[in-house]
Amino acid sequence: LKVYLESHFLTSTYLDYLAPSRHGQGIMTAVVAALIQAWVVPRMGAKVLSASVFSENIGSMRVFEKNGFKLWKTLKDHVQTEARGIFPAETRSVHILRWSPHKCTNV
C-alpha cells in the first residue's frame, strides 16, 4: 500500500501471502480492513491509499475491492519477471487501485 498524508507523501509497502488452503475464507479481507481502520487512518492520518496487484490475481483484486478500493488504472505489460525453475520469464500487467476514507466500507 502507498499511503498519502495531508501534505506529505509517505510510501509504505505491505505485502501479503496466504496459504492456498486458507484462500476464500475472508481472512485477507479482514486483515486489510483491520490494518486500514486500526492503524493506517487513525494513526498515520492517511487520506489516500494505493495498491498494486498483478492483473491475473483475481483474489487480491477482490480483497481490495471489498475494502473500498477502486481500479484507478492498468499498466499493460509493465513488469518483466525472470524465469524461476519451471516458471518461464514473462511480461505481466499490473492493476493500480485507489482508496480514500470516504469510500471505506466495513467488511
E-strand count:
5
Supply the number of helical segments: 2
Multimerization status: single chain
- Cα(first) to Cα(last) distance is 18 Å
Shape verdict:
globular
Element-level helix/strand string: EEHEHEE
The helix content, as a percent range, equals 10-25%
Query: How large is the radius of gyration?
Result: 15 Å
The proportion of strand residues reads 25-35%
The largest sheet has its strands arranged as 2-1-3-5-4
Which ranges are low-confidence, i.e. pLDDT below 50, for 5 or more consecutive residues?
none
Molecular structure report:
It is a single chain. The chain has two helices and five strands. The chain is an alpha+beta fold and 107 residues long. The protein has a five-stranded antiparallel β-sheet, covered by helices on one side. It is globular and about 45 Å long.
How is this structure best summarized?
The chain has two helices and five strands.
List the topology elements.
Blueprint: E1 2-4, E2 9-11, H1 27-40, E3 48-54, H2 58-66, E4 70-81, E5 90-99
Question: What labels describe this entry?
Answer:
alpha+beta, 107 residues, 5-stranded antiparallel β-sheet, 33% strand, globular, 21% helix
